[in-house]
# Entry
Amino acid sequence: MKKTLLAWLPLLVSSSLWAQQSGAELIQRGEYLARAADCTACHTAPGGPAFGGGYPVNTPFGVIYGTNISADKKFGIGNWSDDEFVAAVRDGIGKDGDQLYPAMPYDAFTKMTRDDVLAIKAYLMSQPAVHQSTPKTDLSFPFNQRWGMRFWKWFNFDRGELKPDPAQSAQWNQGRYLVEALAHCGTCHTPRNLTMGMDTGKAFAGGDLGAWTAYNITPDKNAGIGNWSQQDLVDYLKTGNVPGRASASGPMAEAVEHSLQYLPDADLQAIAVYLRSMPAIADAQQSKPRDSWGKASQDYLDQRGTGISPQDGAALFNGNCAACHGADGGGTGKGFHAYPSLFNHGSTGAAEGKNLVSVILNGVHRDMQQGEILMPSFASELSDSQIAQLSHYISQQFGNPAAADISAEQVQKMRADAGLPQPPTVLQADNP
# Structure
């Protein structure tokens, strides 16, 4: 896979050249584009067959299920025409004429060239057909009225293929096409307006994903990536980790695992060039860079033998976190499988603690080409109160104290939204 992807030239090759390709070459091109667009993320259920649909996408209005886009003629796209497939991807219109929900990021994919969309179709049609239906998306009224999406599109959807800017370099244009269209970075990293469309006036200033926050990726030095080097960005996109800056979790870990790690370095360099050229957007809550907060500490050592409650954050850290992240919070190990430091880290240094709590609840998983990166979930080990205490301690001791006010009730909601169980009652007790 890696050798195949690295063999391709930059994306902004004349579309007319790719239109002349057929057979194996077109399928290889489509494979590359499907990776860049991360099609598997929403169209493959956990543990399910590739592109067989069924992945649940949580939205403020309910759960939307990714559809089967395999070559199956009954449940997939096996009998779709080219025009029907292009209309779904670029215009948000299904085969039967229904309006698609923007959980399918057609507001970004509309910027793709028709030839690239059809190359993806050629690749999907070359893969095994998955003969299975997907769960029906059944939102409550009025959100179940798909015709209403016409009004949403009127306010939020600008149809049209992205054209290269002749005033910019080929690398910048390549990065723009990847960021704005294929990789649809703005879908997560741009805040939403009142109608849940992307607030393009604050492009890449950070987005609310429910249990997770997609951080600001503009060049602002405090809230964004303004103090990251070009190579820092490339390394993060490739591996999901840059020591002293950040490590990917949640939806970003999925993007790295399924898509970004497979892109050639030329694409990653182009993405970094484009992002670093964007207008910096500040956040008043973030008073200094997210990766500059915190310091090493072993204050919990002073509390050993004092009979403190197991609800105490220091004791919880000692019992659940110190073995991997170090007694002083500085991380352990070296190289690819090292456990990251809890200080000088973008998640613990954020002004709100949602991602920290989500990491404790969900754990971290990145299945990388070099191996597996894994942090276990503590949802079945720690109660809502304990997780609130632990996140409070980590934020106060190793991160941004502004994020230390997470309550047990907030943890309970995040747990419920993620469909995670409560731990056994005995583990929640304060006393033996």
In short: Residues 384-398 form the longest helix (15 residues). Confidence is low (pLDDT under 50) at residues 1-19, 426-432. Residues 227 and 413 are 34 Å apart (CA to CA). Strands lie at 56-59, 62-65, 207-208, 213-214, 241-242, 246-247, 364-368, 371-375.
